[in-house]
Amino acid sequence: MGIRVFVASSSSSVLIKKRQQELVRFLEGNKIEFEEVDITMSEDQRQWMYRNIPQEFRPAQGNPLPPQIFNDDRYCGDYDSFFESKESNTVFSFLGLKPRPGTKQTAEL
């Protein structure tokens, strides 16, 4: 299975669309294999995503918003945590992948 990015193709939020595109472009640009899962096309996938985000990472109100990132069944984080790992050059650790040369070994989450 590997890296899965849960997105919403029919979101009316420009911010969500921009974040999804940035995340996907980064993964593609770094040749990181991933599966894009559209939660607007599958109720089962949307429910799976909601159930598998740990309680401490859920918003106080409402449902978690895409993009949400998993490595197999392990929750990696949302866009904000991805962005932090990108800025600190720890994306591979954040995703649970073997770091490539020039990246830090551990994520500071």
From TrEMBL:
GO annotations of cellular component type: cytoplasm; nucleus
InterPro entries: Glut_rich_SH3-bd, SH3BGR, Thioredoxin-like_sf
Pfam families on file: SH3BGR
Predominant location: nucleus
Signal peptide bounds: none
Keywords: Nucleus, SH3-binding
MF terms in GO: SH3 domain binding
Gene3D superfamilies: Glutaredoxin
Localization in the cell: Nucleus
Family label: Belongs to the SH3BGR family.
Name of the protein this chain belongs to: SH3 domain-binding glutamic acid-rich-like protein
Organism: Pleurodeles waltl (Iberian ribbed newt)
